[in-house]
Amino acid sequence: MYSDTRKLIVFSAPSGSGKTTIVRHLLNDTDLPLAFSISATTRKPRPGEVDGKDYYFLSVEAFKERIADDAFVEWEEVYEGVFYGTLKTEIERIWNAHKAVVFDIDVEGGISIKQFFKEKALTVFVQPPSIEDLRNRLESRNTESHEQLEVRVNKASQELQKSTEFDTILINDQLEKALHEAEQIVAQFLSS
Ligand code: ADP
Ligand code: 5GP
Fold this sequence. Notes:
This protein has helices spanning 19-28, 60-68, 88-96, 107-117, 131-141, 146-160, 175-191; strands spanning 8-12, 34-36, 39-41, 55-57, 72-79, 82-87, 100-105, 121-127, 168-171.
């Protein structure tokens, strides 16, 4: 049905906007030919996270070695001392399996992927209804300390201003509606 799956779809947003929820839905509940780009990170795994499934968890030293080897398409120090990046080998792995690559990465990372892959990439900015909603979602997710949560909320205000640099903005207010819209956006891009 989809002739060319050597494409990339990037979901970026401030932390807490709902991109992980949306990406999981696309991967688990639809027939779209997608596979998740597993990023490398130096942060510690959260309970339930699995190395090689959610992230490749690396030490800072190992991460920096890969930077020196030019192994990343893009990498960012997303929070002070905490690195995240997309390995080139990850994209080839997924394309070789005849799937399109789906990303859940921060806003700067999304913009970098677009610059690197141009029209092969579709960038989707997931926008929360408001910063207050975002804060409430992060509080209910309950995965960050109070201090980490404040860092994420403060960063979000700056990131929201970058939404216009994306191909599409997806407003995540009512989750069911956002999930359906995400499916349509991806199906249309893969058919183009
Ligand atoms: P991100 O990956 O962008 O950090 P998550 O997908 O982890 O965000 O979502 C943050 C929290 O908000 C999660 O607990 C999730 O269940 C919840 N959430 C996601 N979308 C909605 C929505 N539309 N309304 C209410 N809560 C939501
Ligand atoms: P978390 O710690 O909540 O899993 O992710 C923190 C932030 O890092 C999120 O905004 C997430 O999207 C982003 N992120 C995850 N992987 C990558 C990546 O490979 N590159 C970049 N630039 N950001 C990433």
